[in-house]
Structure formats: structure tokens, C-alpha cells
Amino acid sequence: MLRNQLSAAVRNAAEKLGYTFFEGFGYRMNEKNINFPAAWWCPPKIRSVRGRNEGIVVYRVELILMSANKKYDEVAKNQLWDEMEEHALKIYSDIVDEQGVFCTDNITLTPAECSLTRQSELSLKAEFDVKMSFIYV
């Protein structure tokens, strides 16, 4: 259930910024027609759990923001990556307001110009930890 809450929080934050949201394993990106700008959510990994019936679970999130590559020059590419970095940081900070999300931590942002799909996009991979509280009765 926490995984679904986290996915919904990231989806809401990304869609507020104008991204079309997709979910799935990274190797499945080529199976879909992707509308840009797009956010691709990979299934999160549990890094740690503290507590048994109540406590904190830490997920490692991988979110890839993508934009159509219109054969930009280097200056335009860097401007687009700057914009995607701002959006990734906004998503990272906005999900803390969602129910169950305790905090976000350890973000890394990596730009890429090699295409992940057949549609020749520019992308930025955001990886970060999300701590969520849980209670099981």
C-alpha cells in the first residue's frame, strides 16, 4: 500500500508540472508511445525498514524526466537540463506534503542525451530516498 501512496504522490507532483506520467520497468520504455514532456516512474526499491508493526520504510526512487530532443545545440540542451533539474527538485520537495511521507533525502540528478526510447529524447534521471511511516495492526 505504501508503494501505491508513493507512486500517487510522485504522479501528482509530476502532472502539476505538465509531465505525462508513465510507470514501469526501464526496459519497457520502448513499448509505449510517450508524449513529451514525460516522467517515467520505475518500481521503487526498499532500502531499509525500521520497526515491525510500526516504523519507517525507506524507498529508493528512480524517476526519469524526458523531453523531446529537437536537435538542440549545447546551450539549449543545458537550458533544458536546468529546467528538468528544477522540476525534479520540485517533485522531490512536493511529495513531502503527502500523507505518509516522512521526508526525502539523498537525491542525485544525472542528465543524459543518449535516447532511452525510440523517440530520441533528452532525459534527466532523478534518484532519491523517501522515508515513509507505517502502522500495521
CATH-level-2 architecture? 2-Layer Sandwich
**Radius of gyration over all CA atoms, rounded:** 16 Å
**Helix-residue proportion:** 25-40%
Mean pLDDT: 90
Rough outline: elongated
Number of helices, where a helix is a run of at least 4 consecutive DSSP H or I residues: 2
CATH class label: Alpha Beta
Biggest pleated-sheet summary:
5 strands, mixed
Can you list the strand order of the major beta sheet?
A: 1-2-3-5-4
Q: Summarize the helix and strand pattern as letters.
A: HEEEHEE
Distance between the termini: 14 Å
* Unreliable parts: none
Q: Using the coordinates shown, work out and report the CATH topology.
A: Alpha-Beta Plaits
Number of strands: 5
β-strand percent reads 35-45%
**CATH superfamily, called what?**
Phage minor tail protein U
Textual characterization of the structure:
By secondary structure, this protein is α+β, with helices and mostly antiparallel strands. It has helices at 2-16, 74-94, and strands at 20-23, 38-50, 54-68, 101-112, 121-135. Strands 1-2-3-5-4 form a five-stranded mixed sheet, with helices on one face. It is elongated, with a radius of gyration of 16 Å. The two termini are 14 Å apart. The mean pLDDT is 90.
